[in-house]
Specification:
The structure holds two protein chains of two kinds.
Chain A: E1 4-8, H1 13-25, E2 30-37, H2 45-52, H3 56-77, E3 85-90, H4 93-101, E4 106-110, H5 116-122, H6 125-132, E5 137-140
Parallel strand pairs in A: 1-2, 1-4, 2-3, 4-5
Helix pairs in contact in A: 1-3, 4-6
Chain B: H1 2-34, H2 40-56, H3 59-69, H4 77-97, H5 103-118, H6 123-158, E1 169-172, E2 179-182, H7 188-221, H8 228-244, H9 247-259, H10 263-282, H11 289-305, H12 311-316, H13 325-328, H14 356-384
Antiparallel strand pairs in B: 1-2
Helix pairs in contact in B: 1-2, 1-4, 1-7, 1-8, 1-9, 1-10, 2-7, 2-8, 3-7, 4-5, 4-7, 4-14, 5-7, 5-14, 6-10, 6-11, 7-8, 7-10, 10-11
The chains are: A alpha/beta, B mainly alpha.
InterPro entries (chain A): Rossmann-like_a/b/a_fold, Universal_stress_UspA, UspA
Pfam family, one (chain A): Usp
Domain UspA (chain A): 1-141
Chain lengths: 141, 387
Amino acid sequence: MISRVLVPMDGSEMSEHALEYALTAYPDAEITVLHVVGEPSSMWGSATGLALADDLEEAAQEHAQSTFDRARELAADAGSDATIETTFELGHPVRAIINRADDYETVVIGSHGGTISERLFVGNVAEKVVRRSPVPVVVVR
Amino acid sequence: MVETVLLVGIVASVFVGFNIGGSSTGIAWGPAVGAGLLSKVSAAALMTFFVFLGGWTVGRNVMDTLSGDIISIEISLAAGVAVLFFIGLGILIANVFGVPVPTSMTTVGAIAGLGLATGTLNYETITWIISWWVVTPVLGLWIGATVGRYIYPELNRRFEIRSSEGSLLALDRNSSLPMPTLGPNTTYQELGGTIVVLVIGCYMAFSAGASNVPNAVAPLVSSGALEVNTAIIIATVAIGLGGFTIARRTMESVGSELSDIPLLAALIVMLTASSITTALSWIGIPISLVMSSVMTIVGLGWGRATRPITAREAIRGDTDAELAMGALTAEPDAPVTKIGEAESEEALDAGDLFNPRAIVKYVSMWIIGPTMSTLLAYGFFVTVGIS
């Protein structure tokens, strides 16, 4: 019986599918949505913007909020009575996910998130998580 | 025949200039437009004027390097057109994939490829250029990090730019002579801040002109097919065209990266990048505005992230943390958890934002880009045999 599931979400449609899958496949599990902010981008704007913020925690929370709202919406649509947890991390998505994964039994992740340029800067997150995760990973297509 | 080739060359030049206009207008004016300080049309107009000024003055030095110093023979019209196609290809790849490929590097790479194919590459010049390409990012990073770590919080406390409701200036019609006065809600600080933003935008446009005008036309100038002054005007028109059209979009894409950072930080980045770019263009080194901009951004953020006290404390001034050497390696303070909120499992570490490997990966694109353009141009010129 799987009881703790980590769902990394980048706000893309694919990551929403991952959450939907997790909600149906593990209806009784405690699901945590992880959103990584300040990832590398073409001019490093978002990373530097966060670093320069007066209150890092608050700024990061603000960046993550829309993804969390959407995740809660999806959970409500799925009729899940279990409330989902939300958490965020800074920096490189792969590292952040791997660091967190230890506390969970399964990671459910979308197969790819962004555009070609995002892939160039960040790489294929799902692929790297599969290779390096300490716990089993479900890749949703 | 010659006219047709020249026409094709000019079309290629205009394509290159058009795209440069799009991207550099985004960088130079994105923050100001984003802050609502001026309209996109006025930004494009200012851009065109200062690009011309930069190209006409400092840009000539870069033009000389590109058209005459990298290879020891003149670039024939046909070869020049081919070089322009490689520059255009680089820009196309950059646009389609959203990867910042520095145009100046592609240009030098393509000309060097021609030089290798014909055995006329001036190794002394190319080494000199490449060594500056190594120094520039390091310099940008260092300036950014120093400002971010030691100066930024203090500046941030004193300097506030905001756009209030109502127009900035109004005409005072009560006096005998209509005099401009501050508009409704405008403070002197706002007026001053706005002027600073505009001046720095113009400076950045000037440096963009100095470094980028030659990219669009130098391959055609070398053979004498285009006269230098005519070439500068053609490039300016093309860049302006890009500024008035596609820059509307780039101000939201490239400009939005810059607007992710506070306006003050964006101004520091612009000032640093423009100064580096203008200085190097002055001594004839082709350099990209993007390169110094990005490294200054990374430097600022990294410098700030690794600082041992938070900005809020620095702003209040109620900290006595010393900026001694030992403090530089200290962990940033853990964020205070507000009452009623779940305890965060571990403190957020702003240093995580700047993963060295991600930065290295980013910088490697600056090595791959020009290398590819050199190899492609070399292969092309060897196979086709134009010289």
